[in-house]
Fold:
Amino acid sequence: MKPAAKFLLTSTAGAAGALAAVGVYLSNKIMYYKKSTEEKIIESETKTHRFFSMRDFEAQNKEVISFESPFGYRIHGYYIPADPSGSKKFMIFCHGVTVSLLTSIKYAKLFLNRGFNVVLYDERRHGRTGGRTSSYGYYEKDDLAAVVRWVHQRFGEDILLGIHGESMGAATLLQYAGLVEDSADFYIADCPFSDFTDELRYLLKNDYHLPEWPILPVTALFLRLRDGYRLSRVSPLLGVPNIKHPVLFIHSKNDPFIPAGMTEKLYQAKADKKQLFIAENGGHACSYSDNPEAYEKVLDRFLKEYVPEMV
Structure:
C-alpha cells in the first residue's frame, strides 16, 4: 500500500474510532444519567424547598402500590388518600431525571389541600422502579399510561384525573397525552423541554461548548442502536397539538438548564384550553419553591377556569 493511501486509511479509521467513542460516551450519559441517592434527594429538597418535610411524609396515611410496566419491570409508588376520604378527584405526579417520587411531595401537598387523592410513583430506572435506561419520555410515556390504567381500574372511570409533571416528568406527560392517549382531564407541565434534540443541542453549546455536527447525529445513531428509539421521536412538541384537554404550562424565566422559550413554544403549539405562567424567580424546577404565592394563584385560576368540579 502506498504511504498516502495508508495515511488516508489510518486517518479515516482514527476519525471513525473517535466518533464511535463519542457516540458511546454520550449515549451512556443519556441512558445512564447519574442518579441521586435518596439521602441526597432528601437533603436537597429540605434545603431548597420549604414546603418539603420528610417527617410529615413518613407520618402520612399512605399505601404502597406496585404494578407491572408494559416493559416487564415493576412500577413502585404510593397512593395517598385525601382527607376526608371519599374524594373522586385524583392527581398523578411525574418527577424529573436523576431524582425520585420524593421530589413530588411538595406538589402533592398542594393538591391534597385542594381535596385530591394523590398517586406518586418512581419513573423508569429511578427510585424503586425497574428499567435499564432513561429515555426522557419515550418509554416513560407508556409507563405513565400503565399508572393511569391502574388508577381507573381501581377507582373507576368516572373520576376527575389530573397529571402534574416536573422537567422530564413534564415532558413525559405531554408525550403521553399527545402521542399515547389523552385520558386525563387536565395536565400541568412544569419546566419541560419541547424537543430532546433541541435540548441536547442547547446543552452541547452552552455547557460543553461543542458543535452540533457531527456529535448529535452520531449520538442519535448510537441511541437507536443501543436503546431502540429515534432521538427525533422524543419530542413533546410532536404531541402537544393533539392534546384536547387543558394544559397549564409553567417555567422559570431564567432557567439555566431548559430555556423558558421551550415551554413558550409548547404553549404556542396548543390550539386552546391552555394557560402559561413564566415565573420571575428561580432556577430549573424551582418555580414553585421561589414563587409560591404566584404559583398557587396561577394553579387556582387554571383549576377554576378548566376544572368545573373545582368551582
Remarks:
- Strands lie at 63-68, 74-80, 89-94, 117-121, 160-166, 186-190, 247-252, 274-279.
- The first strand starts at residue 63 and ends at 68.
